[in-house]
TrEMBL record:
Domain N-acetyltransferase: 1-163
Upper lineage: Bacteria, Bacillati, Actinomycetota, Actinomycetes, Micromonosporales
GO molecular function: acyltransferase activity, transferring groups other than amino-acyl groups
Name this protein carries in UniProt: Predicted N-acetyltransferase YhbS
SUPFAM superfamilies: Acyl-CoA N-acyltransferases (Nat)
UniProt keywords, alphabetically: Transferase
Keyword Chloroplast found: no
Length: 168
């Protein structure tokens, strides 16, 4: 498995992954880009095996959070994972963890001190997603809703993900 920045040749498969997750608008953005439309607005990375896209992560490195999840002990910039998705046949094989680590490493290079994201709550699988993100080191940031926004200081997250993946 190789992790790298996404390229236009990946967009069709990325769209298929997103459509399969029920993210129709995001899928359409990549499909449209694959058909010659404008590039997607956020940077993304993919896990590939040969020419096959196994999963993707998309986010930004200049986020400021609203008051309910503000992280005053961590200077800006902060990173926000907009979405992460893995093909069903590639799940539970380390692809999602590798993508999360890839994003965290990119966030570190961008000078971020904190990473946050909001698990997709559109279906009953939210509990599985929350369990995955917690196993990767992301913790709930809103005490009243353990399924809401999750995050972690970037240095702690990278240490945890490196331990999980067994690679320095």
């Amino acid at each position: 498995m190789l992790l790298r920045r996404s390229k236009p040749g990946d967009y069709r498969q990325m769209a298929d992954i997103l459509y399969g997750m029920g993210h129709d608008q995001e899928g359409w953005d990549y499909q449209y880009a694959a058909e010659g439309g404008p590039e997607p607005s956020l940077p993304s990375w993919v896990a590939v095996d040969g020419d096959e896209v196994l999963g993707l992560v998309e986010g930004r490195f200049d986020s400021t959070y609203d008051e309910r999840i503000e992280q005053p002990g961590h200077p800006l910039p902060h990173a926000w994972i907009y979405l992460i998705g893995v093909r069903p046949d590639a799940q539970r094989k380390g692809v999602g963890t590798a993508l999360l680590r890839c994003f965290a490493e990119q966030a570190a290079m961008a000078g971020c001190s904190f990473v946050a994201m909001s698990p997709d709550q559109s279906d009953g699988d939210v509990f599985k997603r929350v369990a995955f993100f917690r196993s990767c080191g992301l913790m709930p940031l809103v005490d009243s809703d353990p399924e809401d926004v999750h995050g972690a200081p970037l240095a702690e997250l990278l240490t945890h993900l490196r331990e999980l993946t067994g690679k320095g």
